[in-house]
Amino acid sequence: MPKQSVHRLKRRMLTDRISIVVVGCGGTGSAVLSGLPYLHHALLAAGHPKGLRVYAIDGDRVSETNCVRQPFTSSEIGLYKVHVLMQRLNVFWELDWVGIPSHVRYGRDVPDADFLISCVDTRAARGTLARIVRLKTRRFYYWLDLGNNASSGQFVLGEPLRANRTGTGMRLRCVDELFPQIVNAKLDARDTLPACSAAESLIRQEPYINSMLAQHALAMLARLFRHGEIVYHGGFISQETGRVNPLPTDRNTWARIQNPRRLNVAA
Predict the structure, then answer these.
(1) Domains plus CATH for the chain?
(2) Which residues, including other chains, have CB under 8 Å from residue 13's CB and lie 6 or more apart?
């Protein structure tokens, strides 16, 4: 069998505090945020000296519809999602993580970080983040993007730096490099999610697709942080068939799937 390609974590992240920015606090983003404290404490228990420092960004307020598919209650309607979620996490886990109630348009409210995790629901928003992570004046070592439709989704971890300066092997390709259509704002009009009513949203989207996607992405990060290396940097999930297909850290695989007609990806 051919030898698997391995991606190794930047060496300093094994000892320094790892900074993470999560953009989007909806169904997927809230699930990612809820799982990060477990990863933080797992790192500390395994001997990492500092664990995680997390920032979350979202300019939306809680609506009545959100109280069905997302972890909010009717008493929180009108409050910023990011404030609600971060207050819960900080109180329960005794953390000092930061919530920023802002829509990401130009990147001014996105602090530099080791990892940017995007959980946005439009291609236009993803396109904005794709530009932000590549600005010469900014520093983002990794970009992890999660996207889904009614019953399937994908997560892709990439390195947006123009060159792999740390000597950790070949650069991981970002989601927009592999699937250019995922940042094409013109395709947003074709997407039918999210729905505008709670009942309609439950009919048109499987209840657990967001949490499934978040758990698989978090499990990949856990392996990267705890073991310092991974042989895959993403995956494709179908709730309809129950299949999860990994995205190997392999140039041949990237070459096969860079044709956008080969595989449909979810916004």
Answers:
(1) 7-257 (3.40.50.720)
(2) 114, 225
**Beta bridge pairs of residue 245:** 236
> Which segments of the chain have a pLDDT < 50?
1, 163-164, 166-168, 192-199, 262
pTM (2 d.p.): 0.90
